[in-house]
């Protein structure tokens, strides 16, 4: 599955998570906002960089749950703020005309799906060094 299809799927999950408040948001607008939030600044989505941010934030096991074939771990709004930063989340919300807490609630549902679908078949997981690579990076961060 290509990244645009993956982001579109994530946008649909985001929209559904918000219920009536999300139903008025165009999918293409959500995809564009997601591209901005998850992009590397050059117009490319950088999910491997996102995984690195989760690793650096002490959330390697959460990120590896999205990359693996098992159940996706749930991410909280606090964890998203820690990893993505309040400024980035605020900008994402503003782009969609939402308050930050509403946008964050949508991301709590959408982000695991986006990473999971992007890693289907192992491409993203391999880019991050596999599950062992993720856990090894986390161990290095914490001196283990």
Short description:
The protein has 144 residues and is mainly α. It has ten helices and no strands.
Derived from helix and strand composition plus strand pairing, the structural class reads mainly alpha
Shape: globular
Backbone CA Rg? 14 Å
Q: How much of the sequence is in beta strands?
A: under 5%
Taking the alpha carbons of the first and last residues, their distance comes to 36 Å
Counting structural domains, the number is: 1
Please mark out the parts with pLDDT under 50 across 5 or more consecutive residues, or reply none: 127-131, 134-144
CATH superfamily: YidB-like
N-to-C series of helices and strands: HHHHHHHHHH
The assembly state of the depicted protein chains is single chain
What is the CATH topology assignment? Arc Repressor Mutant, subunit A
Helix count from the secondary structure assignment: 10
What profile does the largest beta sheet have?
none
Q: On the 0-100 scale, what is the average pLDDT?
A: 85
Quickly name the level 1 CATH class: Mainly Alpha
Write down how many β-strands occur, each being a DSSP E stretch of 2 or more residues. Answer: 0
Can you put this structure into words, describing what you see?
The protein has 144 residues and is an all-alpha fold. It has a single domain (3-141), classed as Arc Repressor Mutant, subunit A (Orthogonal Bundle), CATH 1.10.10.690. Helices cover 73% and strands 0% of the residues. It contains ten helices and no strands. It has helices at residues 3-17, 20-23, 27-38, 47-56, 60-67, 77-84, 86-96, 100-119, 123-127, 130-141. α4 (47-56) packs parallel to α10 and α7 (86-96) packs across α8. The longest helix is centred in the C-terminal third of the chain and has 20 residues, at 100-119. The protein is globular and about 35 Å long. The model is unreliable at 127-131 and 134-144 (pLDDT under 50).
